[in-house]
Amino acid sequence: MLELLEQLVRSTSLQNVWHLLGHRLNGYGFDRLIYGYTKFATQNGIGELEDALFLSSHDTDYFNEFIDGKMFIHAPLTRWARENPSGYCSWGDLWERPEVLTAEERGVIAFNQHMGVTAGYTIAIPTASPRSYALFALTGARGITQAELDAIWDDHGKEIEVLCNIAHLKIASLPIETKRAKLSRRQLEALEWVAEGKSNQDAATIMAVSVPTIEKHLRLAREKLGVETTPQAVAKLTFLNQMYVSTERETFHLNEETTRSRDPWHPKFLKR
Q1: 269: part of which helix (H) or strand (E)?
Q2: Which of 90, 144, 171, 214, CA to CA, is 20 to 30 A from 193?
Q3: What are the CA-CA distances from residue 201 to residues 123, 185, 210, 244, 255 (Å)?
Q4: What is the DSSP string of 193-220?
Q5: CA dist., res. 6 & res. 270, Å (int)
Q6: Angle formed by the axes of helices 211-225 and 230-239, to 10°?
Q7: Please, are residues 254 and 272 in contact by the beta-carbon 8 Å criterion?
């Protein structure tokens, strides 16, 4: 366990964090995972999906329907996560109590069972902000019953919960790619100079362009980020750890065909 934690701490890419976590949890009987994280939730929901990060090791058909099709919003464990800012829940605690489920929630359960998602655990990750939510949905391997997973959890649940919390903290420290269109290098550079306290004229001089060009870069950045003001754009990029990050870094592109990889722990993202 200590060796794994050291590897997670030293990881510099989200791919490696996801790979390490997935292979460890697979050893406990959880062969498919979903991770969701947003820093822009509202009082009544998780906020705009364009600002959220989703990772999944499920197959493409399930991922496209459950995540991209927004079915997860009506899942009983999503309701549980909204009501419980931290901790864990066995799916059997809700799935086996139909009297507390809505018709939509029962529909989500039926879909999951049809897709071979029949047992598992959800972990809610504590966050410092009331606008932040993070959770893991751990699916048991096909053929494993909820009772068998519960027995595994009795023996290893605390270790699994701690491991997921550490993985989240590591992911949250890395640049977070979301569904929103990426800023160009020049748009990001203009925002960074403004964040340093430079005026539009200063930024134009530094970047060797005209003031109208700087204003255009900032306007397009605001539009891509879905905000009204430049300070809001700076704040959002800061929340996503994308300020002052080398533009030469290796990044994820949310619309690339991630499912081409033969590795089941190659991340899949919410697609555009």
Answers
A1: strand 268-269
A2: 171
A3: 49, 19, 8, 20, 36
A4: HHHTT--HHHHHHHHTS-HHHHHHHHHH
A5: 29
A6: 50
A7: yes
The rounded distance, in Å, linking the Cα atoms of 49 and 72 is 12
Which position has the token pair 């590897």?
A: 7
Other CB atoms within 10 A of residue 68 CB: 19
Q: Integer distance in angstroms from the first to the last C-alpha of the chain?
A: 37
Q: Strand 268-269 to strand 30-38: parallel, antiparallel, or no bridges (unpaired)?
A: unpaired
Instruction: State the Cα–Cα distance between residues 6 and 166, nearest whole angstrom.
Output: 11
Q: Which CATH superfamily is domain 2-177+256-269 in?
A: Transcription factor LuxR-like, autoinducer-binding domain (3.30.450.80)
Identify the residue whose tokens are 């993985």.
167
2.30.110.10, 3.40.50.12780, 1.10.10.10, 1.10.1040.10: which CATH number matches 185-239? 1.10.10.10
Domain coordinates in residue numbering, the chain = 2-177+256-269, 185-239
Per-residue pLDDT of the chain in tens (272 residues, 90 and over written 9): 889 999 999 998 888 999 999 999 999 999 999 998 887 777 666 667 677 788 899 998 998 899 888 899 899 988 898 888 899 999 998 888 878 899 999 999 999 999 999 999 999 999 888 778 899 999 999 999 999 999 999 999 999 999 999 999 998 888 766 667 788 989 989 999 999 899 999 999 999 999 999 999 999 999 988 888 999 888 878 777 676 654 444 333 333 333 334 455 555 544 32
Q: How many residues are recorded in the chain?
A: 272
Rounded Cα–Cα distance for residues 200 and 147 (Å): 62
